[in-house]
Amino acid sequence: VQLQASGGGLVQPGDSLRLSCAPSGHTFSRGVMAWFRQAPGKEREFVAADGRGKYYADSVKGRFTISRDNAKNTVYLQMNSLQPADTAVYYCAADDRMFSVRSYYFQADRYYYRGQGTLVTVSS
Q1: Tens-digit pLDDT profile for residues 17-62
Q2: Neighbours of 4 (CB within 10 A)
Q3: Residue 90 in contact with residue 11, Cβ under 8 Å?
Q4: H helices of 1-124, where?
Q5: What is the gyration radius of the CA atoms in the chain, in angstroms?
Q6: How confident is the model over 52-102, as pLDDT tens digits?
Q7: Of 124, 118, 123, nearest in space to 35 by CA
Q8: How far lies 98's CA from each of 36, 50, 103, in Å?
């Protein structure tokens, strides 16, 4: 199973981007899918998850939206009002389960499948 994120690029502050992640070789229609990111020199952090509910990091709430198209087996991250602090490599993660513990959604190590990232650079 491969998870490959795409859609990253160089944008200016205030711009929008939509990231996509389409797993190959496996369907996650009944499991959780999520996005994490890692900025240069920083630890990986949770961004958003779509499981029993939708969860967002406080830093992106109101600006980012996670969605999925089960027919296409794809998860998206719509990012609006991008800021330089959003600059990072964005990764998607997935698991066949729906986590029963809310805090698990925020922990990348809980996800069995974690994929390659796509770089998002926000700069003027």
Answers
A1: 999 998 888 887 789 999 999 999 999 999 999 998 999 999 999 9
A2: 14
A3: no
A4: none
A5: 13
A6: 899 999 999 999 999 998 888 899 999 999 999 999 999 999 999 999 999
A7: 118
A8: 17, 9, 12
Other CB atoms within 10 A of residue 122 CB = 20
30 contact partners, CB below 8 Å, separation of at least 6: 96, 98
Q: Nearest Cα to 87, choosing from 119, 60, 121, 118? A: 121
DSSP 3-state assignment of 77?
strand
- From the number of C-beta atoms within 10 Å of its C-beta (0-12, 13-18, 19+), residue 105 rates as buried
**pLDDT value of residue 30:** 85
CB 14 within 8 A of CB 80: no
Q: How far is CA 111 from CA 11, 62, 66, 108, 121, in A?
A: 29, 25, 17, 6, 25
Task: Output the pLDDT for position 72.
Answer: 85
**Rounded CA gap, 24 and 2, in Å?**
5
